[in-house]
Amino acid sequence: MHTQKFKLNSTNILPDSYDVVCCNNCGFTYANTKADQTIYNEYYLNFSKYENQDSTVSSGGGASVWDKMRLENTAKDILAFSNKNDKIIDIGCANGGLLKELKQLGYTNLTGLDPSEKCVNYVNDLGIKCIQGELFTADQVVDGEKFDIVLLSHVLEHIYDLKGAVIVLKKLLTPTGKIYIEVPDAANYCNHFIVSYYYFDIEHINHFDKNSLKNLFQTNGLKLLNSSNKTFLVNENTNYPATFSVFQNNDINYTIEKSETVKNQVLQYVELSKKNNSEDKINQLIAENTEIIIFGAGNFTARLLENTRLKNCNIKGFVDNDKTKQGQDFGSKKVYSSDYLTSFNGTIVICSALFHQQIYVQLKNEMKLKNEVVIIN
């Protein structure tokens, strides 16, 4: 349905392109990527952005008011089907924002699991037990311990081996245990258009809706108890679509239900993306041969460099608040910290889908820079 290309930094081990495809049998839509689960495991072990506390870099720790609000609401969704003495594990817990909100609600038996050593140390410092490990060895890492509730909040869209993931999740459950899954809602991409091709990034390789979640889990012996759609703010005026489902161990016979809702939504979203671009701003920068530094070395910039004329601009370098990117090559140029901008007199081009206004405030109000600033969105 669409081929997505990226310009990646020199150390990134993920593919620089993939096809977005749809299964003819069930309607599930996903990225047909050349990487396997081993590559994705290595990527999240060594290149995690979620350990960063900067609110313009990552989510999951409640660093921004919007992320904290999202996590508070998710904790309340979990409260609706659980007890405060339930043994809970949050897989892919990042900086433990959801666990922290559950603790605030009175939950006492909490465990986090994350591949990032820095995230694990941070969560342990919060007074919440956290273990370093990844999903596919989770049952081994916890030494066969069983849990009443297993949480995967915005994790499953990152997973290549979905069936393998469900098999491991079942091993973690008590006989009456439940799994809470929350993912982006691909059935509502068009209703929540952010920037062109935003929902196709190097990490989000599965495009779920309620039906595809039900197909995945019920064909693997878990019964759907509840599901609902939701939205949450990712900045002061942008809503992000999500869907969540709760499943429980139950060996049921289930026939896959085909749905083309996501297929049709993705095709519409691709057409919308083609009509929304910043070519006029980019063309002016090219025509004037303006020296620019691009603020933002993430997925949005990776798409722009490979799919627009932005690569033809007079780019002198990149800046990003993510410390894991600083010092790396992005294309043929280096990524620097924001301090680098104090000695740059050219134009700063902000390429950030969600945090462009926060970055603008950082440049003008906090750093007091006089440079011209252009926002691409």
Summary, kept brief:
By secondary structure, this protein is of the alpha/beta class. It has helices spanning 37-46, 65-79, 97-105, 117-125, 138-141, 162-172, 210-218, 261-275, 279-287, 299-307, 356-366, and strands at residues 2-5, 17-22, 29-32, 88-91, 110-114, 129-132, 147-153, 173-184, 206-207, 222-235, 238-249, 291-295, 314-319, 329-330, 333-336, 347-351, 373-376. The longest helix has 15 residues, at 65-79.
Helix content: 25-40%
Overall outline: globular
Total DSSP E strands: 17
Structural class: alpha/beta
Beta strand %: 25-35%
Widest β-sheet, arrangement of strands: 6-5-4-7-8-11-10
Give the biggest sheet: 7 strands, mixed
What can you see in these coordinates?
The chain is an alpha/beta fold. The chain is built from eleven helices and 17 strands. It has helices at 37-46, 65-79, 97-105, 117-125, 138-141, 162-172, 210-218, 261-275, 279-287, 299-307, 356-366, and strands at 2-5, 17-22, 29-32, 88-91, 110-114, 129-132, 147-153, 173-184, 206-207, 222-235, 238-249, 291-295, 314-319, 329-330, 333-336, 347-351, 373-376. Helix 2 (65-79) crosses helix 3 (97-105). The two termini are 23 Å apart. The model has no long low-confidence stretch (mean pLDDT 93).
Question: What are the salient characteristics of this protein?
Answer:
377 residues; 6-stranded mixed sheet; 29% helix; 7-stranded mixed sheet; alpha/beta; 11 helices
What topology does this entry show?
Elements: E1 2-5, E2 17-22, E3 29-32, H1 37-46, H2 65-79, E4 88-91, H3 97-105, E5 110-114, H4 117-125, E6 129-132, H5 138-141, E7 147-153, H6 162-172, E8 173-184, E9 206-207, H7 210-218, E10 222-235, E11 238-249, H8 261-275, H9 279-287, E12 291-295, H10 299-307, E13 314-319, E14 329-330, E15 333-336, E16 347-351, H11 356-366, E17 373-376
Parallel strand pairs: 4-5, 4-7, 5-6, 7-8, 12-13, 12-16, 13-15, 16-17
Antiparallel strand pairs: 1-2, 2-3, 3-9, 8-11, 10-11, 14-15
